[in-house]
Write a structure and sequence with these properties.
Chain lengths: ~280, ~325
């Protein structure tokens, strides 16, 4: 009996050690960045990267990184992009999910399959030809163009909405029809307000991925002074500033702050949203 | 008697209203889907037969681009690097599965561990590039930590330059970024298992390992299969780590990094399109093969164990409940 107790204690300890170890691995790269962001130039050159900075109140690097990378502008652009993309993709996504869930028609499954198939295509490969289309539409160096491209509904949020619609009783629609409402009224007045939790979840997921998107932003918003997003503004640090890591780290930390805040506030939605999207996909 | 309705009457009827709302609600998403996915897909196929840049004259060359993909060393050969990423994704899945199993039971500070391990998934790609350039720089973070563990700096390689190790370094960043996300997916799947099953198994005297094998594994089979499929196709199209960290230098250029370079820097659009089409074909083939494989494997492996066990446990749980009611 005592042996099994010892064994259990050993296993529990091993479990916690492994958890601590992997958590350490997960945070170490970011924490080291955070430490370096507070160091002065002299300190950065003379001390080891893992030595704590002399002062945790040295915000010079943050200020410099913010101005040098034009982050004020970048944050403004990112905000505009975020608001527009979220607004339109919620509208488009919920409407599409409504039709796909509530109406039986020829092509329903085909449309679902088309969206599913589209999500399997690797983005980097697709951009070879999308670039030509964006060019012909005059969407290079155009925030509007970039926003329209980003609005394409993704399968994950469609699934989240469809799942949610499945749990809304159809009798709600029917009673509204009896009251004389048409389908538009049913959608906007009756169903849309009920979708709120699903909308919040998918907005958080889509918001984070839009905020973090850099490949297309780099490709289509080439004027880095005018149209940088927060992610692409970090490209300022490639080149002559490439070895001033105290500055770079400050920039990196600034860029990931919004995601960190959203994560701390909305952990539950992020987890459940991911799970909801994955199980069906 | 049927009476032919005028268009006006039809549009006011319920059928008409339905068609109207369907068109109104679907036209934009379908248009976007067409313009940004299927149209480029078709165009890419067309491009692959031409020698062309984005702007200017195009010359039809037939299958020459496809031949070139196989002839040039830097194109098809780059697919070899996928093996590193496949290995990485195996490590990632196993690690995620272990952590998910541990964290699905009561653990002190579980939410914090989960949060720490998940957060890397939410960092933008360029920031990750800088973080790891910094992390792997000679004498910086990684070297320091290894020195704490007793390694000598002189014995350590240059993590991003040394060709015998740099692909592992890059794969490591990819594992770092995604293992937490995989873990969260697995936790979600494990949590959706009926908790009655665990109780019943406990009563039957099943230990943790048996619980894992007979209850957790069968119920998250689907999501594991899905993730294995995704990780293999993902390895074939590995792109981000080398793109943001090494820019494909020193033998780290994966197939997609080379393709990106050929398309957007060298502007050989035809060749890049051929590369894309070839890889897409490979991905489809691999996906179909995997699906068949899993179907076959699961049909054979499922003969007795998990299902019968689950049935038994459910019956047990039911009888327990009846007992309680009495």
């Amino acid at each position: 009996m005592s042996i099994s107790k010892i064994l259990r204690a050993v296993l529990t300890t091993a479990k916690y050690i492994s958890l601590i170890f992997f958590s350490f691995c997960a945070v170490l790269p970011v924490v080291s960045c955070f430490i370096t962001a507070f160091k002065t130039d002299v300190e950065y050159q003379t001390t080891n990267v893992m030595t704590m900075p002399q002062s945790w109140l040295n915000f010079d690097n943050f200020v410099q990184a913010f101005t040098k990378a034009g982050m004020a502008r970048a944050f403004m652009n990112s905000t505009i992009i975020l608001i527009c993309v979220l607004f339109f993709s919620v509208m488009i996504g919920t409407q599409l999910a409504y039709v796909l869930n509530r109406f039986k028609f020829f092509g329903n499954t085909i449309i679902r399959a088309l969206f599913l198939f589209a999500s399997q295509l690797p983005g980097v490969a697709m951009q070879i030809a999308v670039y030509e289309i964006m060019y012909n539409l005059g969407f290079i160096n155009s925030l509007v163009g970039y926003i329209i491209m980003m609005c394409g509904t993704d399968i994950i949020s469609i699934y989240i909405y469809i799942q949610f619609f499945e749990n809304i009783d159809y009798s709600l629609d029917e009673s509204a029809i009896i009251d004389g409402a048409n389908y538009f009224t049913i959608f906007y007045k009756v169903l849309f307000p009920l979708l709120k939790p699903a909308i919040v979840t998918s907005c958080i997921l889509k918001g984070v991925s839009t905020y973090n998107e850099y490949y297309c932003a780099n490709l289509y918003l080439q004027d880095k002074k005018k149209y940088a997003t927060v992610a692409t503004s970090l490209y300022t640090f490639v080149g002559p500033l490439g070895s001033k890591y105290n500055l770079i780290c400050a920039g990196v930390i600034i860029s990931l702050l919004p995601a960190l805040i959203v994560f701390v506030l909305c952990q539950k939605q992020i987890y459940s949203g991911l799970t909801a999207g994955a199980v069906k996909g | 008697m049927k009476h032919k309705r005028t268009f006006k009457e039809w549009i006011k009827s319920r059928d008409g209203q339905q068609v109207l709302v369907m068109i109104a609600f679907m036209i934009v998403p379908l248009l976007l889907l067409f313009v940004f996915t299927y149209l480029p897909f078709g165009k890419m196929f067309g491009f692959s037969f031409y020698n062309m840049k984005y702007v200017g004259a195009r010359k039809y060359v037939g299958f020459k681009n496809y031949l070139k993909v196989f002839q040039r060393d830097d194109c098809f050969g780059a697919l070899k690097l996928s093996l590193y990423y496949m290995l990485g994704s195996v490590v990632q899945l196993v690690l995620a599965l272990y952590l998910a199993t541990v964290l699905s039971f009561k653990v002190k500070g579980g939410a914090i561990f989960k949060g720490f391990m998940f957060f890397p998934y939410l960092i933008n790609g360029i920031a990750i590039g800088f973080i790891f350039k910094f992390f792997y720089t000679r004498g910086f973070v990684f070297d320091t930590v290894l020195q704490w563990c007793g390694f000598q700096l002189d014995n350590l390689p240059y993590w991003l330059r040394d060709q015998s190790i740099n692909n592992f370094s890059l794969v490591g960043t990819s594992v770092w970024r995604y293992f937490g996300q995989n873990m969260v997916l697995f936790i979600g799947a494990i949590m959706s298992v009926d908790s009655e099953l665990y109780e019943a198994a406990m009563l039957d005297g099943a230990n943790r390992f048996q619980q894992f094998k007979y209850i957790i594994m069968p119920s998250i089979k689907t999501i594991i299969t899905l993730n294995v499929i995704l990780s293999i196709t993902g390895s074939l199209s590995a792109f981000e780590p080398p793109y943001v960290i090494t820019d494909g230098a020193n033998g780290t250029g994966t197939y997609f990094v080379v393709m990106h370079e050929i398309a957007h820097t060298q502007q050989k659009v035809g060749l890049a399109s051929a590369m894309a089409i070839i890889l897409l074909l490979i991905i489809f083939m691999v996906t179909i093969l995997q699906k068949l494989f899993f179907k076959y494997v699961f049909r054979n492996a499922e003969d007795e164990d998990p299902r019968a066990a689950r049935k038994r446990e459910r019956a047990l749980a039911r009888s327990m409940k009846k007992h309680e009611r009495k």
